[in-house]
Design goal:
Blueprint: E1 18-21, E2 48-50, E3 57-59, H1 65-73, H2 80-93, H3 95-100, E4 106-110, H4 116-123, E5 128-133, H5 136-141, E6 150-152, E7 165-171, H6 180-190, E8 191-202, H7 207-212, E9 225-226, H8 229-238, E10 242-254, H9 255-260, H10 266-277, H11 280-283, E11 285-298
Parallel strand pairs: 4-5, 4-7, 5-6, 7-8
Antiparallel strand pairs: 1-2, 2-3, 3-9, 8-11, 10-11
Helix pairs in contact: 2-4
Length: about 300
């Protein structure tokens, strides 16, 4: 039986929280893609509670760390094109962060996938690149020249020297970890003075996620918590990061991929997908603000 936990950001007991969404899991529908990035939505989830203190929505009785690690280790990978698109959007969104860094020597990405974003950072002048990724399929899908940058497994702070990174990134991963506060706290300690911690997270309070409700793609069995701009900012500040900023930004993906996220009957969505896969219209890149937040904080100089 899963152990009930306090809010993983502010430690408020779950007895003070309200139910945000009841559990909805069909074990027969769980596949190798259930714990893969940018999959087609399944709309399954553990029970979510909403914290009245920090505004986080979180699973109060999550699977164990070992169970999660095993699920991600075995997960399939099927998002190379979307990974490239996401990396392009992220590098554009953090231009102001990069401009502020005292140095661009060493960068860490937690949840690096095929390390496509690390390649973007290499092009920005970073000399040493390190990525942590639990999925063996994602690592196997990486080009050979990126594989030396990737360490297989779950992020562990003690694997790295304190105050050794100029930039630490964690994109669409903070929802998946069991203890986001420990990740944020660790980032502060691993950063050099003046270094930055940057995340991209889903915002459950955005208009699109409020409209879609239970049919939002963020309602997912992978997600142990869901953030708002308030809760991600709260997390950064209580970890000791300074000059914290959190704002929504637009993602840019192909029309074919956007169609995969639509809450339509599967038969209809399959027909739309087949049509878009066969022509240039489906490959057209479109930018939308779909309720994602980019947040940045710095280690005090």
């Amino acid at each position: 039986m899963a152990t009930t936990r306090n809010c993983p950001v502010c430690d408020t007991p779950p007895g003070k929280a309200e139910v945000f969404l009841e559990e909805n899991i069909d074990q027969s529908r769980i596949t190798g893609l259930s714990f893969a990035s940018r999959k087609e939505p399944e709309y399954m989830c553990h029970r979510f509670m909403r914290c009245p203190t920090c505004d986080l929505v979180y699973v109060d009785a999550p699977p164990s760390q070992d169970a999660l690690a095993q699920a991600y280790h075995q997960a399939d990978y099927d998002s190379a094109e979307e990974g490239n698109d996401a990396a392009a959007a992220y590098i554009h969104a953090i231009r102001s962060v990069l401009a502020r860094l005292p140095e661009r020597k060493r960068a860490l990405e937690i949840g690096t996938g095929t390390a496509v974003f690390l390649e973007r950072l290499k092009n920005e002048g970073f000399a040493e690149l390190v990525g942590v990724e639990p999925s063996v399929q994602a690592i196997a899908s990486a080009p050979e020249h990126r594989k030396p940058w990737i360490r297989e497994g779950i992020f562990v702070e003690s694997d790295f020297e304190p105050a050794s990174f100029d930039l630490i990134c964690c994109f669409m991963t903070m929802e998946h970890v069991l203890d986001p506060k420990s990740v944020s706290d660790a980032a502060l300690r691993l950063l050099k003075p003046g270094g930055a911690f940057v995340t991209v997270t889903h915002d459950y309070t955005s208009w699109v996620n409020r409209v879609l409700g239970k049919k939002s793609p963020i309602i997912d069995i992978e997600h142990m918590q869901l953030f708002s701009t308030k809760s991600i900012s709260y997390l950064f500040r209580t970890s000791g990061l300074v000059d914290v900023q959190a704002e929504r930004f637009a993602n840019r993906y192909s029309l074919r991929y956007w169609a995969r996220l639509l809450p339509l009957p599967q038969a209809l969505k399959s027909r739309i997908g087949a049509f878009l896969s066969g022509n240039a219209l489906g490959r057209q890149k479109l930018s939308f603000n779909v309720g994602n937040t980019i947040a940045a904080g710095y280690r005090k100089v």
